[in-house]
Amino acid sequence: MTISAEKIKELEKTAKTLRYDIVMMIGAGKPGHLGGSCSIADIVAVLYFHKMRHNPKEPKWPDRDRLILSKGHAALAQYAALAECGYFPKKVLSTLKELGTIAQGHPEMLRMPGIEANTGSLGQGLSVACGMALAGRLDKKDYTVYCIVGDGEIAEGQIWEASMTAAFYKLDNLVAIFDKNRVQAMGPIIERYDTNPHGEKWKAFGWHVMEVDGHSVEEIADALDEADKIKGKPVMIVANTVKGKGVPFAEGKAEFHHGIMTEEQHKAARQLFEEDCG
Amino acid sequence: MNKQNCRVVYGQTLVELGRKNERIVVLDADLCKSTMTRFFEQEFPERFFEMGIGEQNMISVAAGLALSGKIAFANSFAVFAAGRPYDQIRVSVCIGKVNVKITGSSCGISDFGDGATHQGIEDIAIMRAIPNMTILSPADGIETRKMVRAAVEYEGPIYIRIPRNEVPDVTDEKQEFKIGKPTVIREGTDVTVFTYGYMVYKALKAAEVLEKEGISPRIVNVSTLKPIDEEAIKKLANGVKGVVTVEEHTIVGGLASIVAYILRGQAIPMEAIAIQDCFGQSALSYGQLLEHYGLTDTAIVKAVKKVLG
């Protein structure tokens, strides 16, 4: 164990706060990317509140670690984290998708501080992360580029182009986290379009592969620390997750990839988190 | 007339600028001996990235480099540079105004032997449709050198279209190149011919013939296709009896569309010389292919006479 019991507790609470923010951002009666945002909440919490070197007061600090959300539709988790970190006022979250807001349906770097690249058309983020990692090496900087990739997303061929680039250029300053939540928009991955096996694919592509429980902040943190020690290879952390994690009625449900919570559901979810998040 | 190969000039200019500016990085998709970025690779191997035959990844990687402070030049044939990674150009590059320069080499039908798959005849139409994009098309080696310099100075996405074959120098070395400014290559009073790329030379050849017949054409090099200086186009079309557009590109979405839109509502006769909404094909020479698709000085002479009635 590399992080203290106290830190684990704190990160677990942060992840709950992020989920609460996600539920509140979407609101009742409106569609929102609840499932994929909740599946990465623990990963995002560990990255922003434990692992990454970053400065909300100076989003463009050249030495910062970077997070590219290749599965851009899960942006709500990142927006919540950025707001909790202080990149912008928390009240911005309630403006999600409103005309003119910085909180767009998919992340936009020119609008929101802390967003590193535009993603949302799936498959592109891992390539962008490769470019940032190449630049970091050229500039002799020691920042790490993190990239979250989805298990539905990897049907996009560009992911594999980027996977070859990362291995060919031995990008050991690139750490990807694979959000294996098993469900894509139209249903379970194994039924709709099976992208398995996952870890084996990246091993074959020349990556160092690890596997964690994507809802254990301790396992995530340990794997990210372990990733720092891997030299000469990019790292893929396969994180086993549950789509919609933490919101019981949405867990494992494709309907909540971009679903609508009823008033009752929204109230139930809110109350669940309010007990914990106060 | 001095002749230069724009690809060679492009490659040499990248090296020349690379010596002064360490921020410049170059990516290529297994065509560096054709795009001539091999010169850059030879001199700056650490700043050159072979991306394999994967243009989509290349564009997004270039975006990542640019987002980390680099001036990233991503290279391939025009058809692969603009067509294959359309969505990557749109999302990874243009929405965020990322400082990526995309070079579409062997543009138009200049890759005469390789046929329809390799001939980039709709690249301008595709690139024009994307907000925040700037499109440059040099008429010769002189302009190529100036454009690459301007592209480095400019912060934001640029698409540069480079011909494959040797082309005669037609622009003035002393003329300043400014993104967005069309330039008059030859003054005239009867008809304005708007053109760009290698077709500027063809228009000048046509002008020699027309001059002998007492017709005075003004030849304008619209080497920036986006953003377009609407006022300049209107001014240059003002007072003449007709307008002709000439381009080595499909009739859809290129200069013909641009000029027709700008001059909408004006009762001015107009003709367009372009590839008529069809794919290219192989030929044994560039000249043969230009002839086949009607991209010749003779065709320009005819079009000018037609607008004069």
Which characteristics define this entry?
heterodimer, A: 278 residues, alpha/beta, Rossmann fold, 9 strands, B: 309 residues, seven-stranded mixed beta sheet, five-stranded mixed beta sheet, 14 strands
Give a structural overview:
The complex is a heterodimer of chains A (278) and B (309). Helices cover 41% and strands 13% of the residues of chain A. Chain A has 278 residues and is an alpha/beta fold. Chain A has one domain: 3-Layer(aba) Sandwich (Rossmann fold), CATH 3.40.50. With 309 residues, chain B is α/β, with parallel strands linked by helices. Chain B folds into 2 domains: 166 residues, Rossmann fold (3-Layer(aba) Sandwich); 122 residues, Rossmann fold, CATH 3.40.50.920. Helices cover 39% and strands 21% of the residues of chain B. In chain B, β6, α8 and β7 form a beta-alpha-beta unit. Chain B starts with a strand and ends with a helix. The mean pLDDT of chain B is 98. Chains A and B meet through α5 and α6 of A and α4 and α6 of B.
Helix content of chain B: 25-40%
Which architecture of chain A per CATH?
3-Layer(aba) Sandwich
Number of domains of chain B: 2
| Main pleated sheet of chain A | 5 strands, parallel
Straight-line N-to-C gap of chain B: 33 Å
**Topology order of chain A in helix (H) and strand (E) letters:** HEHHEHHEHEEEHHEHEEH
Strand order of the largest sheet of chain B: 3-2-4-5-7-6-12
SSE-based structural type of chain A: alpha/beta
Assigned CATH superfamily of the largest domain in chain B: Thiamin diphosphate (ThDP)-binding fold, Pyr/PP domains
CATH class of the largest domain in chain B: Alpha Beta
Strand count, sense and closure of the main sheet of chain B? 7 strands, mixed
Task: Compute the separation of the termini of chain A in Å.
Answer: 29 Å
Could you please say which CATH topology of the largest domain in chain B applies here? Rossmann fold
Count of runs of 4 or more consecutive helical residues of chain A: 10
In terms of DSSP E residues, the strand content of chain A is 5-15%
Total beta strand runs of chain A: 9
Low-pLDDT stretches of chain A are none
Number of helices of chain B: 13
What is the overall silhouette of chain A? globular
